[in-house]
């Protein structure tokens, strides 16, 4: 497939937007996946290709949060390991499930997350972490296995589920949770990319182009968020908007297309 100037512009600019959204809230894949399909990739190849940008963008985000002193990795292994286990399973399942089932699954998940994001706003806006050190309860470990499965299966929306798990479940502040979210996403995106790549489901030129934009977007957003803790209220608002877009993309649009085709 020949790369045109228009393709280059769309891939990089879309990557910048997705990098900003992913770092501040999550679900930037709601931008990158449609762009990759628009550029001519089949949906299953777009799903695999999307992991290239997520991996590189997450690495940039982690490094920037760490440099700004906004990332404390102590004890985060309790959440990382279950997420990696879930991501491995999710990536293996991803090639065997149909598009309709994928839309329905993620759409229902986004509805649940919208409700969770609306409740207990003080927890979302806390500036000081309330997490307890040591081994988390078993139910919370299971939650991160499921979050990892979501990320391995389909990247779209997993940034939101990670924030829900880290803020409402583990007691992180929203600013701190964003850095940990990027670290976990980096690790399980690497696992997913290896599995998708081994099956020839990655278009590397498009993936690397979008990765350039996503890395730049992640750097911009990480510097802004880590230097302005008061941005938490805007992050929460962005979360709500992104989740509503996800509900439209995965539930309402497929239903509309099914009705109009009948």
What would you say this structure looks like, in words?
This protein starts with a helix and ends with a helix. Mean pLDDT is 77; it is low at 258-262. The protein has eleven helices and no strands. With 262 residues, the protein is an all-alpha fold.
Q: How is the topology of this model organized?
A:
Blueprint: H1 5-24, H2 29-38, H3 43-67, H4 77-94, H5 99-118, H6 121-125, H7 138-153, H8 158-169, H9 174-198, H10 204-227, H11 232-261
Helix pairs in contact: 1-2, 1-10, 2-3, 3-9, 3-10, 4-7, 4-9, 5-11, 7-8, 7-9, 8-9
Unreliable stretches = 258-262
SS class: mainly alpha
The count of DSSP E runs of length 2 or more, i.e. the number of strands, is 0
Mean pLDDT: 77
| C-alpha geometry | globular
User: How many structural domains does the protein architecture include?
Assistant: 1
Compute the gyration radius: what is it?
17 Å
Q: What is the succession of H and E elements? A: HHHHHHHHHHH
Measured by DSSP, the beta-strand proportion falls in: under 5%
Tally of contiguous helical segments = 11
Q: Which percent bin holds the helix content? A: over 70%
Q: What's the main sheet like? A: none
